[in-house]
What does this fold into?
Amino acid sequence: DVKVTQSSRYLVKRTGEKVFLECVQDMDHENMFWYRQDPGLGLRLIYFSYDVKMKEKGDIPEGYSVSREKKERFSLILESASTNQTSMYLCASRTGVTGELFFGEGSRLTVL
Amino acid sequence: GQSLEQPSEVTAVEGAIVQINCTYQTSGFYGLSWYQQHDGGAPTFLSYNALDGLEETGRFSSFLSRSDSYGYLLLQELQMKDSASYFCAVRANQGGKLIFGQGTELSVKP
It folds into this structure.
């Protein structure tokens, strides 16, 4: 079975802190994604990566950056967390461009 | 801009048929997917349509009309376990960028 693992299920951080959300997949998938999910807004794409060291901005990249140094790992970085970044963050991976996305269990971030 | 429109809520009874519509306006279009998400769970893949027409997978079917920028998910013989949120998603470029709609919360009543 494909497994996408997000490092933390729940995090509480303070405004201005640097936050790292880690995601690892074990199926050698080329594509990896970071979404945030908020009630009534669905899943909004932050960044995605189609290969190692390759990335593309999604619809809401402001305040976020990403790193893909190895194929299996895709990190989301909040350089200076703000309260409006309190959300559920979902990582996903996929092989090819038409295949199904496999999601992790999510990381619920609260910024105080 | 890019937008996907779906109804926010749908209610139906067990055994019935329900259709969840999705209209999209995106800068590029290469295919339409559907995902299911139960409360507290991760989204899971249901279907993908790249060409016009109907795709059937058991009780679920998905339809696409590219000329109308429209698709739908059809759920037949509804069961209580089908209560969940359903998201349509557009593959928006050749690289596989996937944009999701806001989701439709389906409630199945006895």
In short: Chain A is about 0% helix and 55% strand.
